Amino acid sequence: MSKVYTTKELIQILAAERQACLKGERLKLEVTVSGNPLIDQFIRTDGLQRFTAYQDFKTAIHEYQRENQISGIIWKEIKIKQQTLNYPEINTELISLNSDLEILKAAKNSILDFWYTVSDGMDLYLSFNNGKQHQTITIADVERMAQRTEWASLLKWENLNFLEIILQLGWGKPEEASYKRGRPHSGSEFIHAVNPGNLPIG
Question: In a 3-state reduction of DSSP, which class is residue 105?
Answer without folding.
Answer: helix
